[in-house]
């Protein structure tokens, strides 16, 4: 019932040989995802995220900056601090060690969140359609 937030295979950072120069969990002057302190079974102290809540900002060597959003409502359980010292993990192992964060959706909402997700096959079909329409 937890959601691991990663970059999609089609994300621009994983294309075109870009290099990640930095990852920043400081969202605003008063909000850092690194300050998230979670304790206990009920995950007390976890920051609450909406679908549009930024998780981090990733900068690449070509000067581009990408804001990564939560995309789901829930509590922020943890952020991956390992990618701060080794940003290449996000590109080399995006779906394992290079994850961005772990979010726990509200129990009542977890079913509707998972029902709206695409299977790997459906996702690949969407990418194929997008690729065909742009060329």
From TrEMBL:
Molecular function terms, GO-annotated: actin filament binding; actin monomer binding
Keyword Nuclease (UniProt): no
Listed InterPro entries: Abitram (IPR039169), GCV_H/Fam206 (IPR033753), Single_hybrid_motif (IPR011053)
Keyword terms, alphabetized: Cell projection, Nucleus
GO cellular component annotations of the record: dendrite; filopodium tip; growth cone; lamellipodium; nuclear speck
Record Pfam families: GCV_H
Gene Ontology biological process terms, A to Z: dendrite morphogenesis; regulation of actin filament polymerization; regulation of filopodium assembly
Translocase listed as a keyword: no
Localization, UniProt: Cell projection, Dendrite; Cell projection, Growth cone; Cell projection, Lamellipodium; Nucleus speckle
PANTHER family noted in UniProt: PROTEIN ABITRAM (PTHR13651:SF0)
Protein family (similarity comment): Belongs to the ABITRAM family.
Protein name: Protein Abitram
Source organism of the structure: Geococcyx californianus (Greater roadrunner)
Gene behind this protein: Fam206a
